[in-house]
Structures are given as C-alpha cells and as structure tokens.
Design goal:
homodimer, about 70% helix, DNA-binding
DNA sequence: CTCCTTGGATAGCTAAACTATCCAGTATTA
DNA sequence: TAATACTGGATAGTTTAGCTATCCAAGGAG
C-alpha cells in the first residue's frame, strides 16, 4: 500500500479512506497483513484525483461515475448520462416549480430551444434544469438573455462537442473508451472554461483598458 | 429585518449571518432594536444568492467580488480581474512547479497559445493556471490534446465573449455595469455549460444510440 | 402594564473529506 | 531467534463551511 501511495502521490490514510468508501477496489490479499495492488489501482487512483482535483467533484459523485464506468453491460450513451448527472453542478428547482411563473417560462424557453434545434435530449436531462436555472436567475436580475443568444451558444457548443468526440472516437475497447469519455466530459469542459476566461480578459483589456480608466 | 427576509426569501438567521460576515451592509438604525433596509439590500441579497446558488461560489469569494464591485475608483478591467480570480475553480499548481516537467510543458503550451493568438493577458492570470492544470491532467491520463484543438476552443470562446460583451455594453452607470459584468461572468458561463451538456447528449445519442448498444 | 418582537452576540449543529490512533498479526533485521 | 518495524483494517478525532438556535436587553404594540 505504501508503494501504491508513492506511485500515485496519495497519502496512505487517504487510500485507506477510499478503500473504506468503496471508491477503490481492495488489493489481492497475500496474507493477513499484506495485499498487492496492480496497475489498475494506480490508474483508478489517478482517475479519482483528476475528477476530484480538476473536476471539483464530490466523492459521492465520483463513486456514481466509477460504478457506471465499471458496468460493462451499460451502453455508452447511458454511461455518459450518468456522468453528466453526477458531474454537477446540481441546479435546485423550487419544489413547487409549476406554481412559479418564472420557472415555467424558463422551462418553455429551454424546450423551445431544444425543439428548434431538433436535438434528441431526454425530458429529464439535468442540463435542462441547469439551463432553466441560469435563465430564471438572469431574468430575475435583469441580465439580457435572448433565444438568439442561446442559439448562438448552441452552435458553438455543438462545434465544441463534435471536436471532442472526433478526438476520442478512435479509442479501442469499451473500458478504455468509457474512461476517456468520462474524463473528456470533465476535462475538456474545464479547458474550454479556462480558454473562455482568457478570452474575457483579452476582450476586457481592449474594451476597458488595463489601467484605472 | 423580517420584511427583508420575506422579500428576498432568505431566512432571518441567515441574513444575520451575512451581516456578521460583512457580506451585507447594516441597515440604517432607527433605534436600538430597529433598523430599516432599502431596495439596495434586497438587490444585494439576490446578488449573493445568485453567486452562491447558481455560481456555486464560496462566501469568501462572494465577499471578495462584492468588495471589488463596491470600489467605485477601481477600473472595470481590474474589477473583472478580481471577479475571475474569485470565481474559481482554483487550480492548485505544485509548490515546486519548475521541477515538474509536465507542468513546465503545459505552461509552455498555454504561453504559446496566447502568444499565437496575440492576446493581451497578464502573466499571473489564474485562467493560465487553470488551463495548464487541465492540460497536465489530460496528458498524464492519456487524453488527446493538441494546439489545434485549443486554437479552435479559443475561436469559439472569443465568439462567445464578444456576444456577452455586446449584450452588456449598453449598460449605463458604473455601479450598474459592474454588477452586470460580474453576474454575466458567472451566469453566461453557466448557461453555456448547460447548453454544451445538451449538445453532448444529442451527439452521444446519435453516436452511441439511446439503447444499450 | 404586559407581552411580543427586534437586533446583536454567542454557541451549537451538520456534512464532507480527510487524518490520527490503535491493534493484532506478519515481515525484517540484528 | 528476539526485537523491532511495518501492514491492513477498524475506530475515533479534526477541520472547515455554512448555516441554526438560543439568549438577552431594549423598545414598541395592544
């Protein structure tokens, strides 16, 4: 175990904790006080740390994702659905959403957008709630938000997704592909957000100047 | 105070907590046991809840942002810098980054990208670290990542930023504009992420089918 | 005049993610 | 072979964030 710790950079007590929590499978016990860990344990630990450190996910979400990745009979589309559901952020719709005019309107906006694009998205997809929450909040706080804008977002997002899928498409083997799709969902999004922040700074520098204008 | 609570939907003890933490200015005291709160307190509360609930930000980050928004002498470009710094996620570079080949290479990749685009971005921008962290993690885990891909991201991100700035550009008054830019940084990004997740589901449905293929 | 409410201060609570201690049983080493 | 160190596992403790709950004295309402 100390060797596993050294190879992965994760402290021994933390590895014990992950074992306890069922995030990491037990090593093969060679005696009452010894167990041997293999390459797959190192990979799994790195995957966990990537999701936690870079993806800022909770261990509960990581556990849900790992279970989906590890179920070989699960179709890839459903596995990705699990990942999306777990990866958060988790929008909280009000309990009595139907009573809330703003929420009803926002749901309608989202439904219109998806229908207009002809996209094949389940009615219960968490991303719908996520988008509705953003729309509600923007409307309530007076930030401009239009269908046109969302359609432009959709075009950009589609282009981005196509690029990511292209890069991962050649991966051989279900297990390998499952792991990469999961990681891609989290890491490519992170990378885009970072690039977007850079673009914002660039535009802000040009628009408002770097001084105290 | 109970009236403020009713108007904003935030429980009285939580308002007291925000007052204690300096997130919300005190109301004007009309006697030892009475204070009156105005429209700006309601606005401020809604802003806090938007950043916390939708932006998933910590109260410490919210405080930093509010302080920047409230400093009228602070140029808008710097104010946005503060927002970006606070809004996270916060990438943790290793302490001895220079010793780490992967990190040096990732930094170089990021620097090349920005230089190639001719963007005006400070050397200490947190988004640089964020992107470098994503690149390091992808390379370590074997996810494909190329300069070409990052340049495509950059083009998409630039288009997105331009759209957002266009929509907010007409805002009158520094205080109003400051608040909107801050909210925009957080909320437009959320909206885009949600749309991107929808695009992913659409593409995944077409690529892998919805069944258990 | 009695009772209720308010603002403010202080203390307590809950959950997540570790971290430390303990222990009995090996493995290592002098 | 005897002493020591280390292992895996179980249990308990720590830290931080973000609230809640309780208490209190002063003031307002009926």
């Amino acid at each position: 175990m100390s060797e596993l710790s050294a190879q992965s950079g994760v402290p021994v007590p933390t590895i014990k904790y992950y074992l306890r929590e069922g995030l990491l499978p037990r090593g093969e016990a060679t005696s009452a006080t010894q167990a041997s860990y293999g390459e797959e344990h190192v990979r799994r630990l790195r995957l966990i740390r990537a999701l936690v450190d870079v993806g800022e996910m909770s261990l509960a979400s990581v556990r849900a994702i790992l279970e989906a990745v590890d179920r070989p009979r699960l179709g890839l589309h459903r596995m990705l659905g699990t990942t999306q559901h777990a990866v958060g952020p988790h929008a909280q719709a009000p309990a009595d959403e139907d009573e809330d005019d703003d929420w009803r309107a926002a749901r309608a906006t989202v439904d219109d957008l998806i229908a207009g694009l002809g996209w094949d998205v389940t009615a219960t997809a968490p991303a719908r709630t996520l988008l509705a929450q953003a729309v509600v909040t923007m409307r309530r706080l007076g930030l401009p938000i239009t269908q046109d804008m969302l359609r432009t977002y959709a075009r950009l997002a589609q282009e981005m997704s196509a690029l990511d899928f292209d890069l991962l498409g050649g991966t051989q083997g279900r297990a390998e592909l499952a792991e990469r799709l999961t990681l891609g969902t989290v890491l490519y999004e992170r990378a885009f957000i970072a690039v977007h922040r850079l673009a914002q700074e660039e535009l802000s520098a040009r628009t408002y100047g770097r001084g105290r204008a």
